[in-house]
Amino acid sequence: MPPELIDRQQLARRRARALAAARPGADFLLDVVADDLIDRLAVVPRRFARALVIGDPTSRLDRALVASGQVDSVVVADLLVPGPVSGRPVIDDEALPFSAESFDLVISCLTLQWANDLPGALVQIRRTLKPDGLFLAVLVGGDSFTELRQSLIAAESDIAGGASPRVLPMAEVRDLGALLQRAGFAMPVADQDRMVLRYGNFFGLAADLAAMGATNCLTARRRTPTAKGLLIRAAEIYGRDHADADGRVRASLTLLSLSGWAPAPGQPKPLRPGSAQMSLAEALGKTRT
User: Fold this and answer.
1) If residue 76 lies in a helix (H) or strand (E), which one and from where to where?
2) By CB neighbour count within 10 A (0-12 exposed, 13-18 middle, 19+ buried), where does 115 fall?
3) Nearest to 163 by CA among 174, 154, 172, 171
4) pTM for the full predicted model
């Protein structure tokens, strides 16, 4: 069994609190990711009879899929807590409650970064796909929020003489293609898109993370409330080390995009090593010396 890095019950409570508060503008990242997923799907020249969307609390992705005309019906499920639509399944994406080969399309929207068993979650998703079904996902990874991590570690070291885990461990894009292949996906692709968010100060970033239900849910976190002095010191360090000339602070964000197909007869397959009919030099019009 993989270690339980994420306290998923705490995650459920944080997400439920965030959904109940529903602060305007806090779902901006969901909008960005939903638009990206719809754009990626639009270049696939086929229609999908039944789709599963995991993680769509605002229903933006659900509505966009229906409007696209590429999907006949959509089942929307959310991670551990229900969304605003009554009757929506509440799921754990490490143990999907759907029968094998239930969907032609599965889309995961900003949930896989919370998986304790990411390889197992990918296997679960692969199992639910019909042959030649498509999987698309976006998750947070890479060097996301490295400035926040550095500032909190430095502040806690200054005040308490040591640091506790506060920022989620992140998957790297170079590992995800191999995980997709290991889970049984054909034609796996993993890529990344880096962006920089800018805030007036540390506390603006912290407020947005809380409004998304994305604050510290690590199992190894300290269980006592964070001292105000620690946050003030972290804000000072953040402003000192990660501010632009105008005084606004930076927050790095890396979105990892995944795609893969459930294997099926007739899909393109890579050629066997050594089976090429011409050399690379010949293909490039060059002469060997």
Assistant:
1) strand 71-79
2) buried
3) 154
4) 0.86
Tokens of 64: 């966009």
What's the pLDDT score for residue 220?
83
Distance CA 200, CA 6 (A): 29
Beta bridge partners of 108: 54, 137
Which residues in the chain belong to E strands, given as ranges? 48-54, 71-79, 90-91, 103-109, 129-141, 186-199, 249-261
| DSSP bridge pairs for 76 | 53
Structure tokens at 78: 């959310």
DSSP state of 136: E
pLDDT tens column, 19-64: 777 777 777 888 899 999 999 999 999 999 999 999 887 788 988 9
3-state SS, residue 35: helix
Paired residues of 52 in beta bridges: 75, 106
Q: How many residues does the chain have?
A: 289
Is residue 114 within 8 Å of residue 7, measured between CB atoms? no
pLDDT in tens, 198-210: 999 999 999 999 9
User: Which residues have a Cβ under 8 Å from the Cβ of 259 and sit 6 or more positions away?
Assistant: 40, 134, 135, 136, 137, 187, 188, 189
Separation CA 1–CA 20 (nearest Å):
33
* pLDDT score recorded for residue 222: 81
Residues with Cβ < 8 Å from 140, sequence gap 6 or more? 110, 113, 168, 170, 253, 254, 255, 256
